[in-house]
């Protein structure tokens, strides 16, 4: 089987400074780097490094950034036949500011990612015939993501949606197409209309989202761990104790690992352990795709946590 990712590909332009700037303030930074990113690409690399045959469907510009990004994906083991080189737009970029605590501000300029449409869904269709999981995010047009979810759902493929960045609302008809919905606290609050500042609010948010037709809701809570609500009931997942360095790719590592684990036939509980471990490992390293663990790293980390 395989994991298919339908999503964004960006070049991340990363600055680091002692703290994040206030509005109108200029700070002197300590470092700058250009690294491959984009939620779709990050999650594809995460899944591929954990042993899943992984296809990415998306768009790059016909530019030097696109050349570099495609080469990086292929070097990571991601299948890129579904990536279209669009000569009508630049490759997507993300401007990322990091402080010494690893917190971040991110501005994404979609470029070619913003042009995904039905033609991209047509390129997705044949890949779904061999797929067990479709992984989606929302750095691409919502209409394209919805069409992909409906297509995969109709073919019996497990659909995971990471609703990031969260829109004001998702269409009611989309929720029943989702086997997994994996927002963080901010995204979940946007979708349900209230904050997740207490354990009771977290549970209420998961219940509200699941009542809309989602199979399993997983709320990513940063240092507080995660909460999963499925047919089997609710489950609190404590965070692994690590010292964060860079939180940029934690959610992408989580989702890619979840998809890879499900593709390899692991149970939900074991898939959640993979996802939590991948996210924890990712925040201890800088960068996005460079922070994604391979299977040996993940399994060694889990053995250490169990000892």
Descriptors:
about 300 residues, alpha/beta, UDP-N-acetylmuramoyl-L-alanine:D-glutamate ligase, 9-stranded mixed beta sheet, 4-stranded mixed beta sheet, 13 strands, about 35% helix
What does this structure look like?
- Helices cover 35% and strands 22% of the residues.
- The chain is of the alpha/beta class and 307 residues long.
- The protein has one domain (3-9, 38-90, 114-306): Ribokinase (UDP-N-acetylmuramoyl-L-alanine:D-glutamate ligase).
- The longest helix has 15 residues, at 268-282.
- The model has no long low-confidence stretch (mean pLDDT 94).
- pLDDT average, as an integer? 94
Report the CATH architecture.
3-Layer(aba) Sandwich
- The third-level CATH topology is UDP-N-acetylmuramoyl-L-alanine:D-glutamate ligase
Tally of strands = 13
Question: Which helices and strands, and how do they pair?
Answer:
Blueprint: E1 3-6, E2 10-16, E3 31-37, H1 39-49, E4 54-61, H2 64-75, E5 83-86, E6 92-98, E7 104-109, H3 118-128, E8 133-136, H4 142-154, E9 158-161, E10 180-181, H5 185-192, H6 199-210, E11 216-220, E12 226-230, E13 233-237, H7 250-263, H8 268-282, H9 295-306
Parallel strand pairs: 1-4, 1-8, 2-6, 4-5, 8-9, 9-10, 10-11
Antiparallel strand pairs: 2-3, 6-7, 11-12, 12-13
Helix pairs in contact: 1-7, 3-4, 5-6, 7-8, 8-9
